[in-house]
Amino acid sequence: MLRPRPAALVSLMRAAGGGRWCRDPSAGARLPSLCSAPAPQPVIAAKEPFPVELQAGKTYSWCACGHSKRQPFCDGAHRREAPGLSPLRFSPARAGPALLCGCKRTRSPPYCDGSHRGNAVQAAPLSPRA
Asked: Is residue 92 domain-resident?
């Protein structure tokens, strides 16, 4: 049985762009692991956009994880519920009404692009918020 050399594994992992380092119990060497945890995914906070009134130049923090109790804005819930996600900070160029994404699947965050109309969002359960 052929065993890959650690240097070959290191090169492979660097080329793949990631992984975390852990000890190989048989060799005692530190090697990159292919079993790193997947990136956290946002939960669906709402199946429709949130209508809001924005002020020009003001900085807002849009909840990107879906766990905030102050939707569509961040309340810091990502720190314990989705540590790999962080809010999107933005400052609108003009004041007025806007539709901010509630499903967290938009391709133009923080603004709604209609992604909530798709079957993947409509069939999914909503995030439980107390």
From this structure: yes
β-strand pairing of 60-62 with 50-54: unpaired
- Report whether 33 contacts 19 (CB < 8 A): yes
Model pTM above 0.85:
no
Number of domains forming the structure of the chain: 2
> In degrees rounded to 5, what are phi and psi of residue 8?
-70, -40
Beta partners for 60?
A: 90
Query: Which residues have C-beta within 8 Å of that of residue 122, sequence separation ≥ 6?
Result: 47, 116
Instruction: Count CB neighbours of 128 within 10 A.
Output: 7
CA–CA distances in Å: residue 2 to residues 5, 87, 130: 9, 46, 54
CB 83 within 8 A of CB 65: no
Is pLDDT of 22 > 60? no
Residue 122, SS3 per DSSP:
helix
Question: How far from 100 is each of 2, 63, 84, CA to CA, in Å?
Answer: 54, 10, 21
* DSSP code for 83: T
**Containing structural domain, residue 71:** 50-122
